[in-house]
Amino acid sequence: MVEYGRGASWNKHCFAVADAAARVGAALRGRLAIDLDFLWSAALLHDIGRYVTHDPIRHGVEGYDLLTRLGHEREARVCASHILFGLEASEAARFGLPARDFVPHTVEERLVPLVDFLLEYDKPTTLDRRFSSLRERNADNDFFLSRLDRARERAEVFMRQLNGEIGDRSVESLVAAIRR
Question: Is the pLDDT of residue 2 over 70?
C-alpha cells in the first residue's frame, strides 16, 4: 500500500489514527470483543483514498474503490463508513458507492471514525474543536454540512458508551496521550 501514499502529508494522520485506535482498543480488550489487528489496519487505511482527492466525502469513496479492487473488503467498508460516521444507502449511491448503508456497526468500524474525529491532522483534539474545524473548512460543501450534526451525534453517543466501558479513563484522554 506504500505506493498510494508515499511521502504524502496525510500519512502522518493515518498513523496517528491507527496508534490512537490501538490504544483505545487495548483499553477495551476484555470488556468488548475487538479484533485489534483489523482495527489497526482499518485505521491505517481509512484515508487511503486521499491519494486521489482530499474531498471530505470522495476520499472515502476512492479508498473503498481501491481496497475493494485489491481484495480488502473489510477495510474498504471502513473507508466508506467513516465518512460522516456513516452514509445511508441513498447517500452512498449519490457518490458512486453501492446503494446500501455504509453505517459503521462493529466496534472496530465505529472506533475508526470516532478516533479520526479526535485528531486534527496528527494532533489530539476534542470533538467540539474538531467539529468546529470541519464546519469551517467545509463551509462551501452543503451536503457535508447538512450531515455534520448527525455525525457528531453518532460520535458522542458512541464515545459515551465507550467511556462507560473503559471506566477509569475517557476516550479523549486515551487519544490525547498519543504524542507524535
Answer: no
Q: For 118, what's the count of Cα atoms within 13 Å in the CB-facing half-sphere?
A: 27
Length of the chain in residues, anyone?
A: 180
Domains delineated in the chain: 2-176 (1.10.3210)
Burial of 109 (0-12, 13-18, 19+ CB in 10 A): buried
Q: So what's the pLDDT on residue 161?
A: 97
Q: Is the pLDDT of residue 98 over 80?
A: yes
CA 142 – CA 10 distance, rounded (Å):
24
* Percent of residues, the chain, with pLDDT higher than 90: 91
Residue 111 has φ and ψ, to the nearest 5°, of: -70, -40
- The sign of the torsion formed by the CA atoms of 137, 60, 44, 7 equals negative
Residue whose C-alpha is closest to residue 82's, from 106, 66, 53 = 106
Who has greater pLDDT, 27 or 9?
27
Nearest C-alpha neighbor of 115 from the set 11, 25, 2: 25
